[in-house]
DNA sequence: CGACAATGATAAGAAAAATTGACACTTTCC
DNA sequence: GGAAAGTGTCAATTTTTCTTATCATTGTCG
């Protein structure tokens, strides 16, 4: 009796789709993974189509080729995969006034750093009171010109110039030019 | 070809022993679990002996009978199972002087309360300065007699008597009798 | 274009898992 | 004691998984 395996047999765990997702996540072809795992590509094809329910030992062998532990395989929630690509519209706008700050990945649960896309309009200024906070930060001027003061020393950075300093040092960004200035920066640990 | 399944095929995951442990943890017989899971007892026997490596769908069915999720099954670390039985010798001695305190489960990672086996020698006294700490505590006098002062009121408790109060109330234990007194107490959140 | 390599899918047979229906053993209960 | 119902195991059979070998499709390179 030929019977197609209902996806719902495994109740809310689609092993096939799951394996396929994992495999593609690692950029492997069925054959490539098969070779590493010591199984045949056919098996992987069948598993991914949910036409068989692999034995635990088979699944183990396959995952060893990735490599990935069984526990991780069953624990991994594909829906919870951290987002990788962030369309412009999805960047969280956190700036005020003439300084426009857009945070990359504001929705991520845990971030090791804050990456910002910053836009300083002509005259924009982070304020005479210097900024100080923990960690380190750095960035690159993408467009325009900016006056950056760090620890008493001021420099004018042009497009292509970059900076990196410990955030405990008092610092200030000011756009004294007549065109807007665009910067991409990062700070760790995350400020926002 | 008859071949016994090496436990090491599944590399550090002994599915059979694991299933058996889970089943016994829930107090189920092979047949009982089989009936709930909609499989045969034979299968469970074979799986537990590692004479077959169950298909994921089979294992899923079996675990549904427990019930337990696949992810939990593979994640569960049997070694980390909290200890249930504590031989007398394993109780941590934390008392001083004439008061002997022995803590149940001092090795447990997380405890919701402290359970103590207390022994007050004749004349033993927790001190004139009243004890105060957070949470609640209670206990039963198992042997002997003890004078317990709580919130200004003093009572003499004999074997079989018990107490329960909020630990914020100042309290004091004193054994004014000529025989030692034995108490089993509990406090939550754990003091020790 | 045409040869070539790589991809995923598939039918049929080999191998392993799962069921059936026993068996031996222990516990419970009258 | 002895029936009755419980336990886990096991050989034989059925069912499913897995391999082998092939196919169709796609993309690459000369």
**Total strand segments of chain A:** 9
Query: What proportion strand of chain A?
Result: 25-35%
Q: What summary fits the major beta sheet of chain A?
A: 6 strands, antiparallel
Low-confidence stretches of chain A: 1-11, 80-86
Order of helices and strands of chain A: HHHHHEEEEEEEEE
Describe the protein in words.
- The structure is a homodimer.
- By secondary structure, the first copy, chain A, is α+β, with helices and mostly antiparallel strands.
- In chain A, about 20% of the residues lie in helices and about 25% in strands.
- Chain A contains five helices and nine strands.
- Chain A starts with 14 loop residues before the first helix and ends with a strand.
- At the A-B interface, helix 4 and helix 5 of A face helix 4 and helix 5 of B.
- Chain B binds a DNA duplex (30 and 30 nucleotides) through helix 3.
């Amino acid at each position: 009796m030929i019977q197609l395996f209902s996806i719902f047999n495994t109740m809310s765990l689609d092993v096939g789709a799951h394996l396929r997702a994992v495999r593609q996540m690692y950029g492997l072809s069925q054959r490539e993974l098969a070779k590493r795992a010591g199984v045949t590509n056919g098996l992987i094809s069948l598993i991914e189509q949910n036409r068989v329910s692999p034995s635990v030992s088979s699944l183990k062998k396959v995952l060893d080729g990735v490599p990935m532990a069984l526990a991780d395989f069953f624990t991994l929630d594909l829906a919870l995969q951290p987002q990788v690509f962030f369309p412009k519209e999805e960047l969280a706008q956190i700036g005020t006034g003439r300084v426009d700050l857009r945070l990359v990945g504001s929705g991520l649960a845990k971030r090791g750093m804050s990456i910002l896309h910053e836009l300083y309009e002509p005259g924009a200024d982070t304020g005479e009171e210097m900024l100080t906070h923990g960690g380190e930060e750095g960035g690159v001027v993408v467009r325009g010109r900016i006056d950056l003061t760090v620890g008493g020393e001021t420099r004018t950075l042009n497009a292509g110039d970059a900076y990196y300093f410990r955030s405990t040092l008092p610092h200030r960004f000011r756009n004294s030019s007549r065109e807007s200035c665009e910067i991409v920066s990062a700070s760790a640990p995350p400020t926002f």
